[in-house]
Structures are given as C-alpha cells and as structure tokens.
Amino acid sequence: MAATFNPQAAADQTRNAYRSITAQLGLLALDTAIPEALGALAEKAVGQTRNAYRLVTILILIFAVGFMASAFAGATAPKTQAACEKAGMDWDATASAPTVKCHFRFA
Q: Are 91 and 81 in contact (CB under 8 A)?
C-alpha cells in the first residue's frame, strides 16, 4: 500500500477546508452556515464504513483459511504396511482397526 490513512489528519483537513470556504463565502455576504451535527454525521458514516471494511476483510481471510485447510486435508495416513514403510513411518501391527496403525517416527 502506498500510504496509510490517518483519520485525525483527514478530519482536520476537512474541517480546515470547510472553514476556508465558509470564510470566503462570508466575504460575499452569503449565509452558508452548516450545522456541526452534519459534520459529526459525516465522521460517523466514515467510521462505520471503515469498520465494515475491516469486518469484510477479516471474513474473507477466515473463509480463505478454511478453504485452504480443506484443500490440503486430502493427505491421509497410509493404509498398508508397505505404504507406511515407503512413507518413512512406523507400522504398529498391535493397533486395533479403529485406530491408525501407521505413525510418524520421532527422533
């Protein structure tokens, strides 16, 4: 990303631009008073948009991790003694059927 967003700097810049324009229009004798509540409403809308963006980003990351995990979950333990030994694992002949008979070797 090229630059980071600073909400305080953006608010200050907007506030200064508003004051500059109203001062210039005031010289023309035009009444341009905008309620301060409108500025607060705009700041609130920007904050809510930023929060929604963060939430969507987090949800996308969660789904991506979930799909990647399921994509790599296809690797299963070998089912035969020959396949187990070929994979460099230990075969446990005493294990019963519901448990895994092929185990990783730990040094």
A: yes
Model pTM score: 0.36
CB 78 within 8 A of CB 63: no
First to last CA, the chain: 45
92 token code pair: 């446990």
Please give the sequence-ordered ranges of beta strands (E in DSSP) within the chain, or none if there are none. Answer: 90-91, 102-103
For 19-62, what is each residue's pLDDT tens digit? 888 777 766 655 555 667 777 888 889 989 999 999 999 999 99
Q: Are 43 and 14 in contact (CB under 8 A)?
A: no
Give the CA diameter of the chain.
96
State whether residue 94 is helix, strand or coil: coil
Q: What tokens does 53 get?
A: 């963006």
Q: Let me know: does 32 contact 22? Beta carbons within 8 Å.
A: yes
**H or E element: which one contains 52?**
helix 36-71
Angle at 26 between CA 24 and CA 30, to 5 degrees: 115
